[in-house]
Amino acid sequence: MAVMTVGRTIGYGTLAGAVAGGAGAAVQYWLVEPSIRAAIAIEDAKSATDHADHGHTSDVVVSRAEQVGFGLLTVLVVGTLIGIAFALVRRFLGDRVPGRSAAGSAIALAGLGFAACTLAPALVIPANPPAVGDPATVNARTVTYIGTIFCAIVLTAAVTALARVKRFEPGLRVVAATALALVGSIVLVWVIPDVADPIPSDVPARLIWNFRVGSLAQMGVMWLVMGGVFGYLSQAVARARRGVGALPSAQFASG
Description:
Elements: H1 6-54, H2 64-93, H3 102-124, H4 138-163, H5 170-191, H6 205-254
Helix pairs in contact: 1-2, 1-6, 3-4, 3-6, 4-5
């Protein structure tokens, strides 16, 4: 990988993250938002019944349209910040990331990031739409979610390091890394406490399924786009530097 300056690394990470955030916002609007609206409608109907029974009324402070707009903007900002962090991690790791080219390494790092930071916690603590879940368990679920990401990152780093040990034969490295990944994943799922909220009976299972699949697809698209854009920019830098390096030799040969 051609080493870029810190400023260019951050700039490319910002651009890649912004594009990924825009793609994630689009996926959220088209795939995730319908499930959120359906869940909120169920909660509103339940609240309206409770208020009618007790003679209370509720005022809407923030409209749903404003909530949607703020949510999409948040995805864009978060995507940009993740892109900067992604670029700095890619720079720090350097050749330790698998991949035969700058673009391949960026895609590989994005795949590892998706597995550790998105897929692992999604399997341990499946996401639920707003208005579904017990508010009393928020702190426990947050701590468990962050702990799962940390453990998954450690496991991913260990598997990647094992897969690149030079003193092992290539076939043995693949087998060892695969075994470590499987055993580590099983241990991770077994050790992490179960803090998932029970689904209320009035919430359709299909709604929960659509929300979870949509949320996973949103993050998958963001990681893929971020890795692809940053990889493309990095590969362009590598090609440009190879061209500059080859220029004097070409001129000497022609002379």
